[in-house]
Amino acid sequence: MKNDNNSSKSLETIDIRVYYEDTDAGRVVYYANYLKFAERGRTEYLRVHNIENSKLAEETGVFVVVRHLEVDYRAAARLDDLLTVETRVVDLGKASFTMQQDIKRGATLLVTLKVVLACMGQDGRAARMPQALRTILEG
Amino acid sequence: MKNDNNSSKSLETIDIRVYYEDTDAGRVVYYANYLKFAERGRTEYLRVHNIENSKLAEETGVFVVVRHLEVDYRAAARLDDLLTVETRVVDLGKASFTMQQDIKRGATLLVTLKVVLACMGQDGRAARMPQALRTILEG
Amino acid sequence: MKNDNNSSKSLETIDIRVYYEDTDAGRVVYYANYLKFAERGRTEYLRVHNIENSKLAEETGVFVVVRHLEVDYRAAARLDDLLTVETRVVDLGKASFTMQQDIKRGATLLVTLKVVLACMGQDGRAARMPQALRTILEG
Amino acid sequence: MKNDNNSSKSLETIDIRVYYEDTDAGRVVYYANYLKFAERGRTEYLRVHNIENSKLAEETGVFVVVRHLEVDYRAAARLDDLLTVETRVVDLGKASFTMQQDIKRGATLLVTLKVVLACMGQDGRAARMPQALRTILEG
After folding, report:
1. Considering only CB atoms, which chain D residues are within 8 Å of C121?
2. Where would I find the beta strands (DSSP E) of C5-127?
3. Closest residue of A to C52, CA-based?
4. Of A100, B59, B123, C17, which sits 20 to 30 A from C37 (CA to CA)?
5. What is the number of domains present in chain D?
């Protein structure tokens, strides 16, 4: 089921500063670290709507886990860069959803991610999405 | 162009122990850290054939960078697990190549990655693959 | 030589949110990651005075490196915590300086660091502190 | 109480390869990452004596946590370096112990750590050291 909300409504943006910890000997951000930036973006997407990772599991018994990931690396970020991470929901199912995330430096698109997330119970099996989470993802 | 070598020839395997540094508060390996394991696997794939990351760039002026990534997360690794990373070349072009990487615990497949890597010159533009690298990737 | 400025003048504070990337399977922040938080604090201490890591080296040929570190771990930070890092100069020499850094959650002191930093030239040897840096550290 | 065993008895050594993930834009290993290397060394020190982090807590209810840390950075490790981490017990108390760790490249000493570790119960308070752990640390 496609999320038909217009994107301006469901788009959340955070700023990220690049520190030494994020870079590697190639003098650019290490390729795995864009996934950290993306996870911060997804976390703040929920937090801005009053859902915290640490409480969602406690209150509903449901964890949100990454099931599938596609990443395009177009250009590299460097030390001291100020980046933005844009996060939006592009697909919403019964037990899973898909987020599109764009990492930019100013207007320049550096890295894009498509992230498929699934709801999982404490037994490790697929679980129905909690209504509180669904409401937020529907925008 | 497909690499038609049989896979037993081009497959390289490394062992990886999971330490606290790799895990997160969900008590499993943090999703970005499988990319570190995969990068160790690709590095050792080259090292076993006498190519080191730090020397390839110096000697040929060509860097190998990740352009595209697809990851499937099937099951989670945990603290103290002993994992294996299997790395093989599945496609080989003029300036890029694709590696398939399987991260396993024993016979259990945990995470699979398809990684598209490209050769880049010091000017940041696509570069022809150095012959020494091509020879190795052809198996 | 002691820095005799009163501490309210030279103290800089940043906020840090704890994400999954920072935690480990003990459900607390991994012990090495407080050093990342501290390095962000030192970087922002300089940035607020218009010195960026990436430009200092370019413009003066001098790098600032950590020579010695003492860390006291008093209490643990957890997922979703909002922390503050307080950074101040406590000692200033000809080619090195010492920073005291306190990592807190609200009024609770979690981790304290004493960090000795040294100026190093491109030859890897001790170098005189650039005047622009000295002026800032003197508060 | 000093551990009076001769050091050849209690010394454990592991090898560590430096990958891109460990380095930063200064083209050396990032300062916090030596703490990861040290933690791998401490973990293998116990594992070689059949104690695993993940089982110690389960079986005894006691966690081992870092309380205090002193690090001297003498020289930098670089991409593709092969390092050794030497770990030995230098002090052993009722609820805490101290390890000395030397990180070397060949005969060259790069980084030394003195790490004070404490036993902690599930209530977060100091706990008596489990006998199985004490026996190992006494060498």
Report:
1. none
2. 12-17, 63-73, 82-92, 96-105, 108-120
3. A80
4. A100
5. 1
